[in-house]
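Async update (no meeting this week)

Hi team, since we skipped the sync, here's where things stand on the single-chain job. The sequence we agreed to prioritize is pasted below, unchanged from the tracker. I ran it this morning and attached the output directly underneath so nobody has to dig for it. Comments welcome in thread, and please keep replies under the output.
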Amino acid sequence: MTSPQPDRRLRVVDAAESFEARAAAAVARARAWLPPVDESVFDCYLGHVVEQVEPTSEADPVAILASLICFAGVHLGRDPHVRAGDDRHPLLVWPLIIGHTNDGKKGSSWSAAKRIIAEADLDFTTANIKSGLTSGEGLAQRFALADDADPDAPPRDLRLLAFENEWGGVMAKMKREGNSLAHILRAAWEGGDLSTLTVSARIAPESHVGILAHITPGEFRSKLSDADMAGGTYNRFLPLAVAWSKALPDSTGADPGLVLSLAAGLADRLDSGGRLGALEIAEDAREQWRELYLEFNTDTHHPKVSQFVSRALPYCKRIAGIHAALDGATAITARHLSAAAALVRYSIDSARAVFTNDQEAGKLLAWIAEAGPAGRTRDEIRVSYCHKHKDKAEEVKHLLAELIGTGRIALGKRPTASGKGRAPEIYTAVQVPRGG
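Output:
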């Protein structure tokens, strides 16, 4: 009698292959709305940390990196800083992590980062990472001087990382009449005076506040008004589009020994970097900085995107400053600038993606991606995707332009079978380098 074992093994193999294929397709759909990531984003110390933990996390590597950058900028404190003209800039970075509810894996990114953060400095994690921004007065109170403050007392710890995994709720609070949180946040980004002149006046001359916020694209668009953009609060944030990077149903996270090793290295770098002062641009990076100065001062964006990313230049210098401080460098090198500029460019592309109809753009991109290298012709899009509907064809026309502009699809030519006649134009999906 023939043993049935080979058939069962075959079915198990088939099931595994089916899962892998379906999981890869689900991840591809989740990431379809994301702009491409320049790998130089990760060419920095924290990027190398991310590269060691991200294989065991479903989170977007960009989100893990941004979480660590935010933490590092706060932990380093007020001494290391950069200058832009007459303005002193603390190394504060406020990532706005934008991803969909189920497949954005925003919480997973914080979990991966926080394991390292907690091992690097548990006391800081306990005392200096808080949630619950509600009012400007409440934030100012955290840094307010007591009426009987001793001028000879040791320096206070002015560092605070506000982690808000439901930023939509904070946005709703800021809209309430009389709420001063938006105004206080604008001052906090400068690392400065949060004093209030309300009935219960607070004297808070110094602060060092970082914000790490999570929100979905739809909620952000629905709650963001033109007045919010004009007020300047949101150009203090660094918008980053993120999504599920890989399916790992059996993962238990990074190896504890690896986490401890990475945390020890990070703690040493934070300690030495926190003793630095002003970080200038190194001589070998001056020409690159001049080019970035022109690039990030040139406004060619959609009006909402322009407002959102109007602080791209100082953000580039702040992020580069964090990279330099963690390397123990007294000046920002070309390598530090390159990694920072790549993240800022991704932020600009993320803002553009958020203000596009990302759901429809993602659906169109996924449909084009299904065709593989053969791509889709204009006629195929018009007939099979738009079903010859003129209104939809007009919308798709704009989406195609947006997808090309953000590098998510490419426009080329498909040779005819005979090699004669006019070669039709084809649209092909561009593979996202990480997690795609």
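Quick observations from my side:
Residues 410 and 428 are 5 Å apart (CA to CA).
The two ends are 47 Å apart (CA to CA).
Reply here if anything looks off.
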